[in-house]
Amino acid sequence: MRLAALLLVGFLHLTSAQERDPFSWLHPMAALQADNTGGDCPAECDCPPTFPIAMYCDSRGLKQMPYIPSRMKYVYLQHNQITSVSNDAFGNATNLVWVMLHENHIGTVGKNAFANLAKLDRLYLSGNNLTEVPASLPRTLRDLRLNHNKIAKVQSSAFEGMDNLTILLLNDNAINDMSGALKGLKSLTLLDISNNQLKKVPEGLPGMLHQLYLGFNAIDAIPDNFLNRFSNLQYVRFSHNELTDKGIPANTFNVSGLVELDLSFNKLERIPPVSTSLEHLYLQANQIKEFTLGSFCSVVDVMNFSKLKVLRLEGNEISRSDIPSESSMCLRLASDIAL
Ligand SMILES: *[C@@H]1O[C@H](CO)[C@@H](O)[C@H](O)[C@H]1NC(C)=O
Ligand SMILES: *[C@@H]1O[C@H](CO)[C@@H](O)[C@H](O)[C@H]1NC(C)=O
Ligand SMILES: *[C@@H]1O[C@H](CO)[C@@H](O)[C@H](O)[C@H]1NC(C)=O
Ligand SMILES: *[C@@H]1O[C@H](CO)[C@@H](O)[C@H](O)[C@H]1NC(C)=O
Ligand SMILES: *[C@@H]1O[C@H](CO)[C@@H](O)[C@H](O)[C@H]1NC(C)=O
């Protein structure tokens, strides 16, 4: 059905276009293009006449960047085998707002490849072969995805001046040093650096963060007053690290505002004190030896009960008989404590 309709539309365009271009039968897709300002759509891509500022070149086995007409704002180049992005890859296409280059084989990026894209808002480079953050990324970016690459070190100036950057994905790389590159990202709300090789919590984490994911690293300690520097932080994940009781200063997690805290798969022997406002707490696969009710609620004020809904404790050294009976008052919303 759809194919037949497409063919029919193609045929109608072809017959009228043939009057102007006698060779249009040689390149029927190009004949479909209504708006050719800034150059023709490359034969290997689709540029729908109804949406002349978008170019679709995804999943076509491309090994090189295609020509990009200057009118384009959105280009979809994901799922190809592109290996490099040269300095002139975007040519005159300086109006680009979204560039989708995820799931390619990109290992080399020209020093100025992205430098002239003064309106770039989203750049997806996930699932490539990058060993460093590309140089001269536009300061206008709001959503930058560099996850699933081979980045080891992040240069301190990598994200400088990105005042509007809101989402930054760096997970699944080989990062062992963030060199303070996160300083000054005053709009950043989501930061994912999980599954890297960090030994320390990165310095200069932005104060507006809402979600902070640091799981699957080798972090053994959390700095003093760590959570007090964030005003909106709700989701914190530290699972699969090397955290011990000694590495967690008293009351680190007893701050209001947190909704979810994941400390699973670490080396904790005690339940750290958490705020009564916390709703999800993951502590499975640690070495916890006692159930301390005082970590959840004040023992003097039974009316100030915990808002915990999910509490996971399986894979520790405690059993159900270690949970005191008073916990039914304190943990009245946690319908199921996993042990
Ligand atoms: C870019 O635009 C300039 C001036 O309009 C033109 O001379 C040049 O050929 C264009 N380059 C490309 C790659 O289209
Ligand atoms: C990725 O880069 C490495 C060198 O850093 C190279 O050996 C490998 O062939 C590249 N892989 C792809 C898929 O391009
Ligand atoms: C951030 O966004 C504001 C409002 O859209 C804009 O005026 C400003 O130039 C942007 N900053 C950067 C660095 O792009
Ligand atoms: C958590 O902090 C509050 C003050 O904000 C304090 O009253 C309470 O005792 C602390 N809870 C624990 C378990 O230390
Ligand atoms: C309840 O206890 C928490 C600390 O666990 C404290 O920060 C909060 O002010 C208390 N709320 C009330 C209403 O007493």
Automatic annotation (TrEMBL):
Which Pfam families does the UniProt entry name for this protein?
LRR_6 (PF13516), LRR_8 (PF13855), LRRNT (PF01462)
Question: Is Signal one of the keywords?
Answer: yes
Per UniProt, residues of the LRRNT domain are 40-74
Where in the cell?
A: Secreted, Extracellular space, Extracellular matrix
Q: List the GO terms this entry assigns under cellular component, sorted alphabetically.
A: extracellular space
Record bears the keyword Lyase: no
**Which SMART domains does this one have?**
LRR_BAC, LRR_SD22, LRR_TYP, LRRNT
Keywords of this protein's UniProt record, alphabetized? Disulfide bond, Extracellular matrix, Glycoprotein, Leucine-rich repeat, Proteoglycan, Repeat, Secreted, Signal
Signal peptide extent: 1-17
Self-association state and partner proteins as the record states: Binds to type I and type II collagen.
Report the family membership: Belongs to the small leucine-rich proteoglycan (SLRP) family. SLRP class II subfamily.
Q: What does this protein do?
A: Affects the rate of fibrils formation. May have a primary role in collagen fibrillogenesis.
Q: Which protein are we looking at?
A: Fibromodulin
Lineage, highest ranks first = Eukaryota, Metazoa, Chordata, Craniata, Vertebrata
